[in-house]
Amino acid sequence: MSLRDWFAGQAMASRIIALGDHAHSSDKARLACKAETASRAYEMADAMLAARSSKQEER
Question: Which of 8, 18, 55, 57 can pair with 45 through a Cys bridge, CB separation 3.0 to 4.6 Å?
Fold first, then answer.
């Protein structure tokens, strides 16, 4: 597992907690939400890696 994957997992867990369960949504809506959550998690992971990289360059 890469650091990016770990960051994405942390971001995904936070997003799932924040959004709650979509038990009353249709299967199609739940699938779309899962895909969106995964995509956003990796966007957040990329942002965390970029911030980490710029912080290390300042040293």
Answer: 8
